[in-house]
Amino acid sequence: xxxxxxxxxxxxxxxxxxxxxxxxxxxxxxxxxxxxxxxxxxxxxxxxxxxxxxxxxxxxxxxxxxxxxxxxxxxxxxxxxxxxxxxxxxxxxxxxxxxxxxxxxxxxxxxxxxxxxxxxxxxxxxxxxxxxxxxxxxxxxxxxxxxxxxxxxxxxxxxxxxxxxxxxxxxxxxxxxxxxxxxxxxxxxxxxxxxxxxxxxxxxxxxxxxxxxxxxxxxxxxxxxxxxxxxxxxxxxxxxxxxxxxxxxxxxxxxxxxxxxxxxxxxxxxxxxxxxxxxxxxxxxxxxxxxxxxxxxxxxxxxxxxxxxxxxxxxxxxxxxxxxxxxxxxxxxxxxxxxxxxxxxxxxxxxxxxxxxxxxxxxx
Length: 364
What we know:
Blueprint: E1 8-13, E2 16-21, H1 32-46, E3 53-58, E4 63-65, H2 70-79, H3 83-100, E5 105-109, E6 112-114, H4 116-121, E7 126-129, E8 134-136, H5 150-153, H6 161-168, E9 171-172, H7 174-179, E10 185-186, H8 192-200, H9 208-219, H10 228-239, H11 245-253, H12 258-273, H13 276-289, H14 294-311, H15 314-323, H16 341-346
Parallel strand pairs: 2-3, 3-5, 4-6, 5-7, 6-8, 7-10
Antiparallel strand pairs: 1-2, 8-9
Helix pairs in contact: 1-3, 3-14, 6-13
């Protein structure tokens, strides 16, 4: 396979390992071979004293990574094989490994960063976006729940921003990504060539993490004007702290403050388009995630995922939005009123914390 065709490219320049997702035509959606390649290369570079840092990036301006290759996972479950199970186990292991990586990882993001793409970057030491970025965990839109560590990183965002993002599946642009602490720096896209030139000429006279941070401080910003979340924060925190999705929806419908009314109305429409079951489980997942360490968050997501293809809404969501594209999913149950607390809690029954298990790895 030529470099042009390889789904992930690896190169070393000036003691920096560069990993580049290389499926721009598929918005750099992750496949199992990509997950395994990333794991193996990161392991090799972590053990190599000549490598001081890693940059994780992607080909193309449209997307850093729009998530996992969900069509292949749908086909896997349909055909009765176990690819979908193996993919999630190894993807989560990779994401966990990035959180624990012993050398600085700088995630450089342009365009869409969704789902599995968020899993790759949220554990990075330095999360750098451009002004073109659109970030989010849109899983509830296909009848799934925010995974890849979402129960950990969403639940720890300021106030109720993470619950709002997870339950609605909303995407945010650069100013809100910085405000919500989903990213650390915004580098203007027209400075990407200059940033690369600087990386290639760094003298490494200080610790690599500090050297990279100093470079970013000269070229990038850690705050941007125009964050909608800043104006909406009070309402988001009030509504999304309510005990369940029906209560949240009812409060949004009752919102009369002029500065929040349009947002509340749009949010209700968004909730009404999502899987009632997925939203309800997501709310429970994120609230539990606030109290769990990282390893347990990944283990809880795996626990839910093992049940979800058979008992959740993902197969119907993918059918309606990706396979048949009729955009009229038949959610089960079809309404929030029909989602019982017992059905939600049943997904969490039998969960065993990761502390009692050996750490997962990715296959060679």
